[in-house]
Amino acid sequence: MVWPSLNNDGDMSNDGMKDPIRDEAYKWIGGMVVPLLLTVHGLRCVFTQHAWLPGRHRSLSLHGGDAIAFGIAVLAVALYAHSHYFLSEYDRLFNVAIVGKIVAALTFIAAFGYVIVQVGL
Fold this sequence. Notes:
Helix content: 55-70%
Radius of gyration: 18 Å
Structural class: mainly alpha
Strand content: 5-15%
Largest sheet: 2 strands, antiparallel
Shape: elongated
Distance between the termini: 48 Å
Number of helices: 3
């Protein structure tokens, strides 16, 4: 059995060739479509000040500041996905992608932490 090895590009494959169609699909779906859907949902939570989270045994309805904070956390996830899947694919935007990921992570921690403290999870 031949074990895949890590080549110079960080790709786990036997031949070292990347699949350009798959890479483009990941870039556009993970970097544009998913963040766009998350952005729409996050902005809806912010502007309507209402968010609903389904749960296994019960659902959680957030209103006011809690919903705004949750919407900001969703926007942070959208920024992280866009930075990771789209911006980091371009050499000239790689540093922007790193800053975007850091800002998104810190924003998510602050906003979702606020929701957890306020709701008392």
